[in-house]
TrEMBL record:
Transmembrane domains' residue ranges: 32-51, 63-83, 89-110, 117-136, 151-168, 180-199, 211-231, 243-263, 269-285
Pfam families the record matches: EamA (PF00892)
Coiled coil regions, renumbered to chain: none
Keyword DNA repair appears in the UniProt entry: no
Membrane topology: Multi-pass membrane protein
Record's keyword terms, sorted: Cell membrane, Membrane, Transmembrane, Transmembrane helix
InterPro entries: Diverse_Substrate_Transporter (IPR051258), EamA_dom (IPR000620), EmrE-like (IPR037185)
Protein name: Permease of the drug/metabolite transporter (DMT) superfamily
Source organism: plant metagenome
UniProt subcellular location: Cell membrane
Length: 303
């Protein structure tokens, strides 16, 4: 049970800690420092395997660069950038709609067929995201009044959806920890100029170096980056893919609880509506996926 609960807890905490970093560490700098810490922790366990697979790493260098840009350098940077103007709960709820964006990305870019339940699920989840974007007031839609952070998180969610499809459609043959270390290293190379431009032109105050800063960087570098990944792998190995995906939906709940405890930010009514719509939409989409898998097995057995 621990390996199932830990990833959404760590990811939910990442949104809250990212909000706590506002005014302490600039967002793109936080993303850079996060992955430097994570890579330094991972390298002692992965460097021998990286050397053993250097031929495969060279062969797939372009692909690894693209996936590192979409995930390490872009998605996480956009998430921390979003938290400068949006609440942790808003960003977590938008992030919770990722399965539906993956579904839509597959349909639009890769012509992956979508069933009726999936379409209904996508529509409900998009309504939930819309409720967040307009803060529960449809009048904001007519005025085109959106919080920039919500739009940043929406862009990050699309980046992650594209990243997921690229991983699904191309197998590199690299062990998981080797691919992760390579993506971290390449992502850091992309994140370095982003952080430099932020410090030069972003208008943010320099990093405030204190114990709180060290705690923030240590948390985001260790828990959502590495421990969540390790627990997720073990959860899938022990329980299969379906159950861990369901537990992913706990991340907004943990964000809600941690936001109230650590930031004193209570939820609004539209948060409840958005959460219900997003989770119902994901459940319907997963029902469609499970039904498709069952039909495939039935057809195979009858053949």
């Amino acid at each position: 049970m621990t390996v199932l609960v830990a990833p959404p807890l760590f990811w939910g905490g990442n949104a809250v800690v990212g909000r706590m970093a506002v005014g302490v560490v600039p967002p793109l700098t936080l993303n850079l420092l996060r992955w430097i810490v994570a890579l330094l922790i991972l390298l002692p366990f992965a460097w021998r395997a990286c050397l053993a697979h250097k031929a495969l790493l060279r062969q797939h260098l372009g692909f690894l660069c693209l996936t590192a840009l979409l995930s390490v350098a872009s998605y996480n940077a956009l998430q921390y950038l979003a938290l400068t103007t949006s609440s942790p709960l808003n960003t977590s709820l938008i992030g919770a709609s990722t399965p539906v964006w993956i579904l839509l990305t597959g349909f639009v870019l890769f012509r992956v067929p979508v069933g009726g339940l999936s379409v209904l699920g996508a529509a409900l989840s998009l309504l939930g995201v819309g409720a967040i974007l307009v803060r529960g007031d449809p009048g904001n839609l007519a005025l085109l009044q959106f919080v920039p952070g919500d739009l940043y998180m929406l862009a990050g969610t699309f980046m992650w959806s594209l990243y997921t499809w690229l991983l699904l459609r191309r197998q590199t043959g690299l062990p998981g920890h080797v691919a992760l270390a390579a993506q971290m290293f390449l992502g850091i190379l992309f994140a370095l100029p982003m952080a430099a431009l932020e410090l030069r032109y972003g208008g943010y105050a320099p990093v405030v170096w204190e114990w709180r800063t060290a705690g923030i960087i240590a948390y985001v570098g260790l828990f959502p980056s590495l421990l969540a990944y390790v627990c997720w792998q073990r959860a899938v190995a022990q329980a299969g893919a379906q159950l861990p995906v369901f537990f992913m939906n706990l991340a907004p709940i943990f964000t809600l609880l941690l936001s109230m405890l650590l930031l004193g930010e209570p939820p609004q009514g539209y948060h409840v509506v958005a959460l219900a719509l997003i989770l119902l939409g994901i459940w319907l989409a997963q029902r469609q996926s499970a039904r498709g898998a069952a039909n495939a097995v039935s057809a195979r057995d009858s053949g």
